[in-house]
Write a structure and sequence with these properties.
206 residues, mainly alpha, 52% helix
């Protein structure tokens, strides 16, 4: 656990310097034009009509830019995104990312099941030391807004179906494009019910 937390701190510092200049030069207006093709899956205002696709509105620009470039470069496989960003330059990725980051994020309402909410709250705010699982809030903040300087995504208001499938992909190794495979290590220690609880909790987190 200490080794994992130490790696988190190192990543925050190193990544923040690398992304600051790129984000400062990004053009949200150019990104809006480029993002028109994204609306079919992610919604006109960055809020997806389907739980199969993530909400992008209000997401950390650094995280979105990284995901776009990872998909473009083959470091992250997303079948639905095949060919969509192949011709994007790094500048295009940052322009689109800043455009979505500037939109108002989704506000969701978690399932009110008391046990589900309590387990989700426990994992998000305190983790589970018996499993070696750190608190989600350590990287994603208590309000779920993420940390842009460390490329840690916002989770607040995200579709539970998408959050759950993402955790499952990290746990199985189908997705491994996070620094030092931190999410793979964490997700692999969560049970299916734990993943469902976290996914439900972050939907209503804001």
């Amino acid at each position: 656990m200490r080794k994992l937390l130490a790696s988190l701190a190192i990543t925050v510092g190193a990544v923040g310097v690398a992304h600051a200049d790129l984000q400062a030069d990004a053009d949200a207006a150019a990104g809006k034009e480029k993002a028109q093709a994204c609306a079919a899956c992610h919604g006109q205002e960055g809020i997806s009509p389907s739980g199969a696709f993530p909400n992008l509105a209000g997401q950390q620009a650094s995280y979105l830019a990284k995901q776009i470039m990872d998909i473009r470069d083959g470091d992250r496989e997303v079948a639905q995104m095949a060919g969509q960003v192949d011709n994007y330059s790094d500048q295009d990725a940052w322009d689109v990312a800043v455009y979505f980051a500037d939109l108002d994020p989704a506000l969701g309402q978690a399932d009110a099941d008391e046990a589900l909410v309590e387990r989700g709250r426990e994992l998000y705010r305190a983790g589970d030391m018996s499993k070696g699982v750190p608190a989600c809030a350590a990287c994603h903040t208590p309000t779920g807004e993420g940390i842009g300087s460390a490329v840690y995504p916002a989770l607040s208001g995200q579709h539970p179906d998408y959050t759950l499938s993402t955790l499952q992909d990290f746990a199985s190794g189908a997705r491994n494009n996070d620094p030092a495979n931190m999410m793979g290590d964490i997700a692999s220690k969560l049970s299916d019910s734990d993943m469902e609880a976290v996914a439900n909790y972050v939907l209503g987190l804001h």
